[in-house]
Amino acid sequence: MPTPVRPPRRHGAELERALLQAAREELAAVGYANLTMEGVAARAHTGKQVLYRRWHSRADLVIAAVRAQTGSIADHVPDTGTLRGDVLGVLAWAARRWHDFGPDTIHGVLADLPDLDPRTFVMMEDVMTTILKRAAARGEIATADLEPRVVTLPSTLIRHEMLLTTTPVTEQTCIDIVDHVFLPLVHAVAGPARGRPPG
Amino acid sequence: MPTPVRPPRRHGAELERALLQAAREELAAVGYANLTMEGVAARAHTGKQVLYRRWHSRADLVIAAVRAQTGSIADHVPDTGTLRGDVLGVLAWAARRWHDFGPDTIHGVLADLPDLDPRTFVMMEDVMTTILKRAAARGEIATADLEPRVVTLPSTLIRHEMLLTTTPVTEQTCIDIVDHVFLPLVHAVAGPARGRPPG
DNA sequence: TTCGTTAGAGACGATGCGTCTCTAACGCGA
DNA sequence: TCGCGTTAGAGACGCATCGTCTCTAACGAA
Prior knowledge:
The structure is a homodimer.
Chain A: H1 12-30, H2 37-43, H3 48-52, H4 58-69, H5 83-101, H6 103-112, H7 119-138, H8 148-151, H9 153-164, H10 171-189
The structure holds a DNA duplex.
């Protein structure tokens, strides 16, 4: 009888990539709620211990898997020439990113983790600050020195939308947020630079 | 030997109240993540079947338990005489309510339920509309006919705060939201009624 | 008083957890 | 080239909880 072929043993970065890939596939196949360490291990043709050696929990694994897939917003700061276009670009990026996770994944990770790594939010604030500074330099607004809560307002609203509505976040949602909330507020507290008319 | 005393069998509304009470006690004792149907049943001195007969899942049970405890915001619409005071009152009520749930309960319920009952949000919008109409009647603002996204802005922001920060929502948080975001925006899009100076 | 319902209690198989054990493949240093 | 230490791959294990099922007796309604 033929000896069954054994694939070579993977290790290091190659193995880790395969594990994260398996986690993403399992996530897409069964959803976060039904994702099990055993399922991921089976899909990766390995044992659970290999997973537990690297990540403490299901939530850690999934976060690592999604992080490894999508880049950072900091590497894709929009620069369209207008404040409105830039903010819409940021919101579109955020919407796509959260869509990649999927609502049930977000809810599940929030529930499984005691507290959330705030890096994502800080990054978002940095990007918004960059955009506002450029708008101020162009003379679109008088100053980029705004209350933190104002700076983070668009990303906060889009995040709330993703967390508490089942419907997908549309382009129109982003436009509403920018045109009906963010821009009116910014122009109210940091009106257009002198010498330039609004809108 | 003495026959062990058997308490009389409960039923109807009395039993249901006892079950919800047991669920609340169990929730406070072990938290949502560690709450089990068996634990609640044991605390209520009954069997699991009695629970499953009434609620399909852990999340259904917990929601029912908390709903039965706290009232509705619609029954406590603030009326302080100023728009600012009223909105702060609403936010304080919301903060207390969410605090009663606890962050881990909120996250857990969001994860366990496929989609959320939107009644809470609609109620919040109704209350805000009432407050804004009174402010318009007083002449504080020119009109109460605002974009839905503007009307729900304060409750949206406080909800986001509860969902994504671990720190408790303080009075100062509510004040920041009202003074730095909501009121400037409202005055920008529905400035003070003619003949009255702002602030 | 009878009869149908269901509370209270616990057994049951299934599932996934996180740990533990084992063997052999593999990388590295001598 | 060889030998040693690490760890991938595989699965067994005990435990907890799930949701279902069964049974008896208490209770309300007729």
